[in-house]
Structures are given as structure tokens and as C-alpha cells.
Amino acid sequence: MVRAYLYLTIFVPLTFLFSFSAGVCALFDRSGLLYDLHARLWARMALGLNHTGVSLCGAGNIPAGPCIFMSNHQSNFDILALIAILPRRIYWIAKKELFEIPVFGTSMRRAGYIPLDRSNGRNAFKSMKEAAAIICQGKSVVMFPEGTRSTDGKLLPFKRGGFVLAAEAGVPVVPVTINGSGTVNPGGRIRLYSGMISLTLHPPLMIPEGLKKGDAQEWLERSVHAAISSRLEV
Hints:
With 234 residues, this protein is α/β, with parallel strands linked by helices. The protein has a single domain (2-230), classed as Glycerol-3-phosphate (1)-acyltransferase (3-Layer(aba) Sandwich), CATH 3.40.1130. It has helices at 2-28, 33-49, 77-85, 104-111, 121-136, 161-169, 181-184, 213-230, and strands at 52-57, 68-71, 90-95, 114-116, 140-143, 173-179, 195-201.
């Protein structure tokens, strides 16, 4: 626990420093390249502070165009690992409360990240429609279909929103299996350990033509669940 608190004394100021710097850069660099560089450097420094390595398998499964990465969620280190190693500029769909944090939230908005309003079903659906429009502009997004972190490493039931988004956007979905992050930072506990996090990218999934919207979402949910589970170490 002491290690975790010591880590936070560096990580929190580092995060706000990078958020401020990236947010300022976003005002002048509309391409987003500088923001992406900030994000990768921040993630790699944060991982390095905890002596945590990341490996990637299946990079060749990333399609040429925009896609939706759907990953299991074991700890906060999942976010660091994905930003640090995915060879694609990515945008996040995150709960709107994060966008209300001073400096950090402003930076996320300037980066083009997408707030998800979970206050009610109508607002959540509207958020997904807006996200689909952004994806159709050529941006790849990352989301955790479980909606929260698993405390035991096992997959939690998926939320419906991500599959509504995928059906609406009509782009490939790349399932991602993360192993090791729950050991580095156990869910629901303020503890940190050094270790190795592995990411496995599975072949992209496209909804078969001819399926009704509800059937398409169910098919995709089953397929993503099966892919992630196939390499999950619990």
C-alpha cells in the first residue's frame, strides 16, 4: 500500500502536467499528432515508474481503416498499456464525469475524446450516436464493454452500449485480451506490484450482412466475448 501512495505522489502531478501541456498543444496542432505523442510518453513514463512492461501480440490484425477496440478491463493500468503500445492513434469513450475534472477533462475534450453520459438510457444512446459519427470520420476508439473493472479477472457481463455503437458505425471491431494488469494493480485495492502486461489483438469482426439490428448486436456481443475469453488467463 505504501508503494501505491508513493507512486500516486508522482503520477498525479505528472498526469496534470501532461494534460496541461497536451491541452495547450491541441490549440495549435489540429492534426492531433502532438497530443498523441504526449499521451504515449505519459503512459510509458507511468508504466516505467512502476517497473511494468507491456507486450503486444496480433498487431497485424488491426484493419487499415477506423475500428473499435473492445477490451476486458482488470485495472487502471489497462489504459496505460493500451495507450503506450497500440500502433494506432486512438480515441477514448469515457464516462462524462472524467471530463469535469479541471485541466484533465479540458485536455480530453480538446483531444476529441468522447464523453458517455450514463445518467439515463436516452442520454447514453445519444452519446453513442455522436460517437458513431466521429468513428465514421475515420477515428478509431477504445472501450471496455464490461463498463467497469473486474475484481477477479473474470469477464463481467457486457453493457449493451458498445454493441449499439458498433452496429451504428458499421466498422470492424477488434477484440483485445489483456492479461497481467490485474496482478500489477488488483481491482478495487490500493496496491501496486511490478510485472508484465500482455495485450492480444484478435482478428477483426464485422457484423454479417442481413442480420436485423438486435440480432446483429447479439451476434457481435457473443463473438467479442468468445474472442476475449479464448486468451484470458484467470
